[in-house]
Specification:
The radius of gyration is 17 Å and the shape is globular. By secondary structure, the protein is mainly alpha-helical. Strand 1 and strand 2 (244-247) form a beta hairpin. Helix 4 packs across helix 9, helix 7 runs parallel beside helix 9 and helix 7 (137-153) packs across helix 10. The protein has helices at residues 7-17, 23-26, 35-49, 84-102, 104-116, 119-127, 137-153, 159-173, 183-209, 213-231; strands at 238-241, 244-247. The two termini are 21 Å apart.
Length: 248
């Protein structure tokens, strides 16, 4: 991922980190209409990579990644036409979360930045070099998974690897709940992932640029814990390859 940040990511990260260094990594949107679909999407992505389903490092539980193929003749739509109303709702709920965890002042700061800034543009500027773009929920989810893998492993990625992960996401979407969402649902899920990505990216880049290895490790540990608890995947037992994620 492009190593850069901006006022949006920085303010959001500072607000969340004020409640503890790992809060930004543990952030999860709850109560969205698409929350169940997102959870199922993560599970499908996990199953796409490994049939063991738990990311265990035990050799007895390892398995080769399997592909979830789309039904014959199926067209899986992952793009969406963005609506300002959906963006407003997503950003408002994000600011409310910040307020619950970091106080009213932090909520107002983040709400102001989200209202006056361009979160989608900020996200696009970071992931553009990896071939990802806004308007596609598969791109948003691929960026989210790759960014968390980078944080967990203090690793790096390239364009080919990232686009391979996007292909894994698209295969996972086939026949699943996201394939049945409308434009608003796909946009909501994508922008939720983008905001999570921006906060995580800003916190991690800030720690790396300051040479704060302790915070970088805490952020990585938090990413590992969240993915293990919520997706059944150990990010440190995955390799990022030219074919996407495979068990280590």
């Amino acid at each position: 991922m492009s190593i850069r940040t901006d006022i949006l990511g920085a303010v959001a990260a500072v607000a969340l980190l004020g409640a503890g260094a790992t809060v930004a990594q543990d952030y999860a949107f709850q109560g969205f209409a698409t929350s169940d679909a997102m959870n199922q999407m993560h599970a499908a992505m996990r199953d796409n990579m490994m049939s063991s389903g738990d990311g265990s490092s035990s050799s007895s539980r390892r398995a080769a990644p399997r592909t979830l193929a789309a039904p014959s003749g199926a067209v899986v739509r992952t793009t969406y036409r963005a609506s300002p109303a959906v963006s407003t709702r997503v950003r408002s709920q994000f600011a409310e979360f910040v307020g619950r965890n970091s106080g009213r002042d932090a909520e107002q700061r983040v709400r102001s930045v989200l209202t006056n800034g361009d979160p989608v543009g900020s996200w696009s500027g970071i992931v553009r070099s990896d071939g990802l773009r806004s308007g596609d929920v598969a791109d948003a989810m691929a960026a989210y998974w790759v960014m968390n893998w980078v944080i967990a492993n203090q690793g790096d990625n390239n364009r080919t690897q990232t686009l391979a992960v996007r292909d894994q996401v698209r295969r996972s979407i086939a026949g699943g709940p996201i394939a049945r969402l409308d434009d608003a649902g796909r946009q909501e899920m994508a922008e939720v992932l983008m905001l999570n990505f921006l906060v995580q990216h800003a916190a991690y880049v800030d720690a790396m640029q300051r040479g704060d290895n302790a915070t970088a490790r805490r952020l990585g540990d938090a990413a590992v814990t969240r993915f293990r608890n919520e997706m059944g995947v150990d990010l440190r037992q995955l390799r990022l390859t030219q074919a996407g994620f495979v068990p280590a």
